[in-house]
Amino acid sequence: MTVAGQLRHRLRFEAPATKADGAGNFEAGWQEEFTVSARLQPRYGGEAVIASRLTGTQPVLITVRRSSQSRRIISGWRAVDAHTGVVYAISSPAADMEQDGAFLEFIATTGRGD
Length: 114
Prior knowledge:
The protein is mainly beta. It has a single domain (7-110), classed as Thrombin, subunit H. The chain contains no helices and seven strands. A six-stranded antiparallel beta barrel has the order 1-2-4-7-6-5. The chain is globular. The two termini are 31 Å apart. 18% of the residues are buried.
């Protein structure tokens, strides 16, 4: 059971965005959406091969309060720790695992070079 006191991290959620450079080209980037308190629970890590290199990855379970903002989070977004700058790539849609309507949980991964 998640309680409010466990939401000890400040995460900034960002959505993918493209920007025009004025010369007809577009750059991929990130658009800040909102910042909320969250709980981070590390899961078993692993290794992935990215660009022909072995890279350590760390899956985490992110828990946030359910709100009109947090219900918009989808896979493909990312969360950035406001204090450490660690980037978490969201890889799952929102789930209400406790089925109480108070919190949403997401699976995310860090260490992928995102």
